[in-house]
Amino acid sequence: MSKIRQLSIKECLIVSEPSTVTLKTKLAILSVGLLSFVGILVETSMNVTFPTLIKTMGVSLDTVQWLTTGYLLLTTIVMSTTAYVLKRFNPKPLFLFAALVCLLGGILCWIAPSFPVLLTGRLLQAIATGISIPLMFQLIFTNVPRSKLGTYTGMASVIVSLAPALGPTYGGVLTSIWSWRAIFVGIVPILALLAILGAVNISGEALGVGDKKFDFLGAFLLAVTFTSLLFTFNNAGTHGWLSLNFGAWCLWSIVMIAIMVTYALKGRRKLIDYSILKLPVLRLRLFNYFGLQFINIGLSFVLPLFAQTVLGASAMMAGLMMLPGAIVGAITGPIAGKIYDKQGPTMLLTFSAIMASVALILFWLTTDHFTVVLIASIYALLRIGFNTGFGTAISDGSTRVPLPQKSDQNSMFSMMQQYAGSIGTSIMSAVISGYEIHHTTVTGTMMGSKLDFILLFILAIAILASVLRVKRLEAAQH
Fold first, then answer.
1. 260/468 Cα distance (integer angstroms)
2. Could you please report the per-residue DSSP string of 324-356?
3. Are 385 and 352 in contact (CB under 8 A)?
4. Global pTM value
5. Integer CA distances (angstroms), 125 to 39, 130, 193, 249, in order
6. 125: Cβ–Cβ under 8 A, 6 or more apart, which residues?
7. pLDDT band at 134 (very low <50, low <70, confident <90, very high)
């Protein structure tokens, strides 16, 4: 494994950077960003349809949640390959492939006669999102000057984070007034227009991979390991946390993690240049980014489910409940990006972790007194914290590596951000399903949600600790 030392921001930007952002570059970023937005929007739009799909398609919560978990898992696996793919293929054909696959998946979901067909369509769209999100950040990191990096990354992070928040509103409204199928009807013409916009404005050439070959074994091991972890928690929800099935899957997952880590350290080919993880600040920023998305997607699953199952809210009401937070988050992200450009990351990331912690402890303390309005209010606080730190974490992470390794850093952050959503949904679902084994659906959902809030609060405290750790490391260097 190649050695890498801690680089200063100045050293990381030795390679010449653009001095301005042209209109064509802005439209290129916009087209890829909106493709990513559509993919993620549909992802959480499906959460509010789960009670409907459980009834109409005759499946359980453990099964239907794979529409989210499976989508995020495949997105994660595809993203793990983009460190190589972004260097191997030019941006325009990559974008057009992603747009076409997303369009085909949307049509398949629209006409799906059964759950397996619906899941297949979602998996096709996962491939598209797995390409588009890293491509969006790659265009930013390579075409935007350092002085505007925070602003553009902040806007890109709004795309990634606003879509999950708007998704329940979009899905809830369409499901209530028409059908869950309308979710996919609405995106088909948008995808066609985005394909044209991207084809006209996206340009540039890949950096090239030289004589480096794609690491098929590394991709396989990573896919098996990530999938094993999801099945582990799925078995906890199905059979209980003390069941033999859960224990066996835990053992298998530990073995796969050991094999994958050993291969990453000693294998000759590298799916991603894992040597960048030797940078302690980068590791901590990655944990920050992962943790915030875990909280974000976890709540996007728990809150609409609670509102419908326990409070008896309609799909539309459960979706609209998330709208104020989505709006607040959309406003917060770009503001945080501009502050980052002027003042750096420490204050923003500290504020982000504190706000997330406060919101989550409020969720836990008030669970027994939840109303739609109360949930919406606390969720808005959470979104302020989330959007303050989410873009800041990846912006600061991108300054820690030189240009040749930015695709590796981009791929790693994007991959772990998506897997955070996948494993977050799986764990949140498993906790609730585990309670439902011994209690009624309403009681199990309430008790499981309480424990979910506690777990997410502990994660938020860990994120705060990671921010303070970075502050100490940088103080020691000076």
1. 30
2. HHHHHHHHHHHHHHHHHHHH-SHHHHHHHHHHH
3. yes
4. 0.77
5. 7, 9, 17, 28
6. 39, 42, 71, 101, 102, 105, 106, 109
7. confident
What the block records as the tokens of 175 is: 């499901």
Residue 206 phi, psi dihedral angles, 5° rounding: -70, 155
- What is the structure's pLDDT at 4? 41
Cβ partners under 8 Å of residue 122, min gap 6? 42, 46, 67, 70, 71, 105, 109
The tokens describing 388, both together, are 């303050």
Q: How many Cα atoms are found within 13 Å in the side-chain-facing hemisphere of 420?
A: 24
How would DSSP label each residue in 280-319? HHHHHHHHHHHHHHHHHHHHHHHHHHHHHHTS---HHHHH
The pLDDT value given to residue 285: 93
Kindly give, in sequence order, each residue whose CB lies less than 8 Å from that of residue 210, ignoring residues fewer than 6 positions away: none
pLDDT in tens, 396-424: 888 888 767 777 887 788 888 878 887 88
89 DSSP assignment: S
> 326 CB contacts (<8 Å, ≥6 apart)?
162, 165, 166, 169, 383
The confidence score (pLDDT) of residue 385 equals: 94
Residues of the chain above pLDDT 90, percent: 30
pLDDT tens digits for 147-185?
A: 777 777 777 777 776 777 677 778 888 888 888 888 888
* Cα first-last separation, the chain: 29
Chain-centroid distance of CA 91 in Å reads 22
Cβ atoms of residues 349 and 389 within 8 Å? yes
Return the SS3 of 100: helix
Yes or no: say if 121 and 105 are a contact pair by the CB < 8 Å rule. yes
Q: In a 3-state reduction of DSSP, which class is residue 75?
A: helix
Residue keyed to tokens 């790659």: 138
Structure tokens at 356: 């997330």
How high is the pLDDT of residue 6?
A: 44
Quote the CA–CA distance of 122 and 290 in Å, as a whole number.
23
Q: Please name the residues in contact with 378: beta carbons below 8 A apart, sequence gap of 6 or more.
A: 359, 362, 363, 366
Q: Take residue 63 and report the two structure tokens written for it.
A: 């099964």
CB 441 within 8 A of CB 309: yes
